[in-house]
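Tokens as discussed.
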């Protein structure tokens, strides 16, 4: 009887290890939040933030997960960082109180409240976005989310691409509306590795 119990415990242990949630930290070299906003009804301006940190906790077997991301607002980059004529660049303007107010609010934070699955596939992520000191719900649709061995070094990793839309005026960022669109499309692409 004791031998049978030992065998059963030995078989059960690997399953419990596989089912345990794993925490992954963002790889900052391969993880960036991007945004798109319409300008004057004529064209779209694209930008990104060059600095983001965060974690993903994921349990495929239990179909649960969580995500937390912190974006450094001063790292905004739209390709207009500094002008030679001395005029204020677009990126400098975006750091000002008209937009991200980086001096007072150095971070934008997203914390998930729920991963939604369709079968074994992550379909969407619900959570809260804090921008300019205001917190509002934000749902990201997930175009891809997978975990597995890195194709080159074979170490475990997760990768994801998620998309959502926010109305910036709801967070108090009203400068230029409607000439500069109120709706901002957000896309986060990330790679993460075990902590």
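Sequence:
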């Amino acid at each position: 009887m004791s031998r049978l119990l030992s065998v059963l415990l030995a078989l059960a242990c690997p399953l419990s290890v596989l089912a345990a949630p794993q925490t992954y930290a963002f790889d900052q070299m391969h993880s960036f939040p991007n945004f798109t906003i319409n300008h004057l009804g004529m064209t779209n301006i694209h930008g990104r933030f060059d600095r983001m940190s965060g974690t993903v906790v994921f349990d495929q077997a239990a179909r649960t997960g969580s995500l937390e991301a912190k974006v450094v607002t001063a790292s905004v980059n739209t390709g207009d960082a500094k002008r030679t004529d001395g005029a204020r660049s677009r990126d400098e303007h975006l750091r000002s109180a008209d937009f991200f107010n980086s001096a007072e609010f150095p971070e934008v934070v997203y914390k998930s409240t729920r991963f939604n699955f369709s079968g074994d596939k992550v379909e969407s992520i619900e959570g809260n976005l804090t921008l300019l000191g205001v917190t509002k719900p934000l749902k990201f649709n997930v175009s891809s989310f997978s975990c597995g061995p890195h194709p080159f070094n074979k170490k475990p990793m997760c990768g994801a691409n998620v998309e959502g839309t926010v109305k910036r005026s709801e967070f108090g960022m009203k400068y230029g509306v409607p000439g500069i669109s109120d709706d901002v499309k957000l896309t986060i692409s990330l790679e993460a590795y075990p902590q």
